[in-house]
Amino acid sequence: MSIELNMKIVTDNKEIVDENQKESIAREILNDLPEWFDIPEIRGKYIIVS
Q: For the chain, what are the domain ranges?
């Protein structure tokens, strides 16, 4: 049995300057990684300073 994976690597980089957008992006990423950022209070503080 073989499995073919099609993956596209996106390498476009752009600076996010809007603070609300930065917070939103950080929140989305950190909420998807509960095994790394499992304490909600600490995660919230990390998001604010990111």
A: 19-49
